[in-house]
Design a protein that fits this description.
Elements: H1 11-17, E1 24-28, H2 34-47, E2 56-60, H3 63-76, E3 85-88, H4 89-99, E4 111-112, H5 115-128, H6 138-150, H7 163-182, E5 184-185, H8 187-200, H9 202-211, E6 214-217, H10 225-235, E7 240-245, H11 260-270, E8 274-277, H12 285-295, E9 316-323, H13 324-340, E10 348-352, H14 358-368, E11 372-374, H15 384-397, H16 402-408, H17 418-431, H18 435-441, H19 446-466, H20 471-481, H21 484-490, H22 495-513, H23 536-547, E12 561-565, H24 566-569, E13 574-579, H25 596-610, E14 613-627, E15 630-633, H26 638-641, E16 648-650, H27 664-667, E17 689-692, E18 696-704, E19 711-716, E20 720-725, E21 732-733
Parallel strand pairs: 1-7, 1-8, 2-3, 2-6, 4-5, 6-7, 9-14, 9-16, 10-12, 10-13, 11-12, 13-14
Antiparallel strand pairs: 14-15, 17-18, 17-21, 18-19, 19-20
Helix pairs in contact: 1-2, 2-3, 4-8, 5-6, 5-7, 6-7, 8-10, 12-25, 13-14, 15-16, 15-19, 15-23, 17-18, 19-20, 20-22
The protein binds a DNA duplex through helix 4, helix 8 and helix 24.
Length: about 725
DNA sequence: ATTAGTGGTGTTTTT
DNA sequence: CACCACTAAT
């Protein structure tokens, strides 16, 4: 064990680590040793004997960050980290709710809905209430519910301003009732339920307040109102909150996060105790200067400027591609070059704004035979065969779970069709009982009736058989008895799915071996009786599956190029970073165009992207790009202009202000042919960059009519898409 | 009851 | 393009 934890820390870091027992805000810039400070403080608190490992709670946003923290603590201290309250907000709340399910008003076997599950419950609910999906799109309701829960608001507390809001709010209440009937909770509910539990139950609150002497929060800028409230409750008995965050890296406002929590925290908790960590240990100066210059364009900041002791390093490299395909080819070429300079592929990242952009890159990499790994997209526990297997397991644990039942009652096919289900749902709705109870009690004739009772018997038998088994055995038996295995064996391309199902057994085995969620919180105020202790491990595993959707893709370990969204890259660093698709409408995204607040969030996102690079940074954009099945003409992102030109080396076509080369877009011949539809008698063409006296720079994306009727559609940087009559509009070529 | 095919629609980021 | 909800055909 290292004898002196503080060795190698700079003054500010050391000050943060050794703060006395009081709340403080650590404003920690990118690459400033944030995680190190956080984990070292934990180790320091324990090593100096100030507290035991059980007296602290450390909370993060991602499972990855939580794991990282535990690993580092283990490396610094000879203690068993199992049982420590270190985890994500959702994970810790789940843990508390499992321990105090009755006080929280939940069934012991409550299941967790992921985003998909929630969406399907909502659709089901709207249908059963006879609400037209045209009038209330399920997505609206989902946003409404989640948004309000993240603000800590129940349906009874929401302020509504119009009829539609009132309608949504009524449905919010219905939604919660339905969840209660089924014994399921969504992600936000985990937090809200836990918060309400602590707020309402004084005994419990005092218990945890006394227990958690120190509370440490990572990525504090990403907390929402509800999380803030929860932290405030836990710290209410004199606990010290050590909040680490960077307002410039707040990129989850769309999920209800508010960096304003930082300012508020400073006022309410820290009493002005703020330590800024501004020395960056990651990047060369040119990269940092670029990031600093960019982020200065934001108005709402707490104020902080990164510096480094490192040299300038290389300039940033900017490449202007004709098409997305050419952009990918360029990246491929550069990666190959880096590789022959013996840079590890795993130390190179390809970043993009949205997941859809990975396809073109993957295509190029695949053809070139370069190993790569994509983060994002479908995760292990989200695959359909896995969701099916989990649904059976959920029914074993809690047969009242309508969502699970609907998912698998006729999969594999048992001759239970829409008609039968309708009858059952009708009956369940009328009698306010679960579908399972309806299935058990509603007399159904014919083949369907036989199918239903066979299904019911199957689940009951399975449950009984599971009682004597270990977790991995349960999973294996379920896959077998459910008929999933047999089904996929006959399917044409079911081999992968079978493999994934086997992988599920493996996942259960390692979860089992690691002791699952380890120590359950010790019950407070008398033990609570357990429904079926033998299924406890199963419930923990199901929660694990919902909370930690699993690796995005297998194949870790191998040296492979890293492809991910900028969001996914937060917290990571690489020798070389490529940021592609730097076009207006993509990055910054179209949806942020009109809202200054979300534009600032886009800029922070760009800031995060820039600061991922240690040594080399590539920026690129394409004049045309295939998006949603059609060619889109874009113009260079405004963010490129916010990076000082002297830090950037243009790799091609050194044009000055607006790096567009009219006409060249066609030259590669890779953009979809035939979109050249401009009127033949005009100098205007698709892809032509133009300047409008009022709207500024833009690019022609389509055209129609000819002569005096000729109109063109222009994508303007500031105004978006507009149709203009060529006869009147004062357009000039750029 | 199940499947294949069609047409309409909407698309950011994620615990 | 990809996902869906719905329809027509087996």
């Amino acid at each position: 064990m290292p004898s002196n934890l503080l060795e190698g820390l700079n003054e500010r870091q050391r000050a943060a680590v050794t703060l006395p027992h009081e709340s403080a805000l650590i404003l920690a810039g990118a690459g400033s040793g944030k995680t190190r400070v956080l984990t070292t403080r934990i180790a320091w608190l324990i090593q100096t004997g100030q507290i035991g490992p059980q007296s602290l709670l450390a909370v993060t946003f991602t499972n990855k960050a939580a794991r990282e923290m535990l690993t580092r603590i283990s490396a610094m201290l000879p203690i068993n980290t199992r049982g420590m309250w270190v985890g994500t907000f959702h994970g810790l709340c789940n843990r508390m709710l499992r321990a105090h399910w009755r006080d929280a008003g939940l069934p012991q076997t409550f299941q967790i809905l992921d985003t998909q599950d929630q969406a399907s419950l909502i659709k089901r609910l709207l249908k059963s209430l006879g609400v037209d999906e045209e009038k209330v799109p399920p997505r609206d309701l989902q946003y409404f519910v989640n948004g309000n829960k993240e603000q800590g608001l129940r349906a009874g507390q929401v302020e509504v301003f119009d009829d539609y809001g009132r309608k949504l709010n009524e449905l919010y209440a219905e939604y919660d009732r339905q969840c209660n009937r089924e014994g399921v909770v969504d992600f936000a509910e985990l937090l809200l339920r836990c918060d309400e539990l602590l707020g309402r139950n004084e005994l419990l609150r005092r218990h945890y307040q006394q227990r958690f002497v120190h509370i440490l929060v990572d990525e504090f800028q990403d907390t929402n109102r509800l999380q803030y409230r929860w932290l405030a409750l836990l710290a209410g008995g004199g606990g010290a909150v050590f909040a680490v965050g960077d307002d410039d890296q707040s990129i989850y406002a769309f999920r209800g996060a508010s960096a304003q929590n930082m300012a508020e925290f400073e006022r309410d908790f820290a009493g002005g105790r703020v330590i800024k960590l501004e020395q960056n240990y990651r990047s060369h100066a040119n990269i940092l200067d670029a990031a600093n210059a960019l982020i200065r364009h934001n108005q709402r900041r707490l104020g902080k400027e990164l510096w480094t002791a490192e040299g300038k390093g290389e300039p940033l490299r900017l490449y202007e591609a004709a098409t997305d395909i050419e952009e990918a080819a360029f990246i491929l070429e550069e990666v190959t070059g880096l590789r022959s300079d013996s840079v590890q592929l795993s130390d190179i990242a390809l970043l993009y704004r949205s997941n859809a952009q990975s396809r073109v890159l993957e295509h190029a990499l695949f053809n070139a035979g370069l190993p790569y790994r994509v983060y994002g997209g479908l995760r292990f526990f989200e695959r359909q065969e896995i969701k099916h297997a989990l649904a059976y397991l959920r029914l074993v644990s809690n047969p009242e779970d309508d969502g699970a039942l609907l998912r698998v009652i006729n999969f594999p096919a048992r001759g239970i069709g829409a008609r039968t289900l309708e009858q059952m749902q009708e009956s369940a709705h009328m009698r306010r009982i679960s579908l399972w109870q309806a299935a058990c009690t509603t007399p159904l004739g014919g083949k369907a009736g036989a199918g239903v009772s066979a299904f019911v018997r199957g689940i009951e038998d399975l449950r009984r058989a599971c009682l004597g088994l270990s977790l991995p055995e349960m999973v294996e038996l379920t896959i077998e008895r459910s008929g999933l295995k047999a089904y996929y064996e006959t399917e044409r391309d079911g081999a992968d799915r079978i493999e994934n199902l086997n992988e599920l057994v493996t996942a259960a085995a390692s979860f089992h071996a690691e002791g699952g969620f380890a120590a359950h919180a010790e019950p407070v105020g008398g033990a609570q009786t357990e429904a079926d202790p033998r299924l406890r491990a199963l419930e923990d595993f199901l929660a694990h599956a919902a909370l930690e959707a699993g690796e995005h893709q297998a194949g870790a370990g191998a040296d492979a190029l890293q492809l991910m969204t900028v969001h996914a890259a937060k917290g990571l660093e690489f020798h070389a970073v490529f940021i592609s698709g730097l076009e207006e409408g993509l990055f910054p995204h179209d949806n942020s165009r009109n809202d200054p607040e979300s534009l600032e969030e886009e800029r922070r996102l760009m800031y995060v992207a820039l600061t991922r690079a240690r040594r080399r940074l590539y920026l690129s954009f394409a004049q045309s790009r295939m998006l949603h099945g059609q060619t889109r003409w874009g113009i260079a992102s405004r963010f490129l202009e916010e990076v000082p030109a002297q830090l950037v080396r243009r790799l091609n076509r050194g044009r000055a202000a607006h790096p567009f080369a009219p006409g060249t877009a066609r030259s590669m011949g890779t953009a979809s042919a035939g979109s050249y539809r401009a009127p033949p008698d005009s100098p205007w063409r698709i892809g032509q960059n133009v300047i409008h006296p009022k709207f500024g720079p833009g690019v022609i994306v389509s055209a129609e009519g000819r002569g005096a009727d000729a109109r063109v559609q222009v994508n303007f940087r500031s105004e978006g898409l507009k149709w203009l009559a060529l006869e009147y509009a004062k357009l000039t070529p750029a």
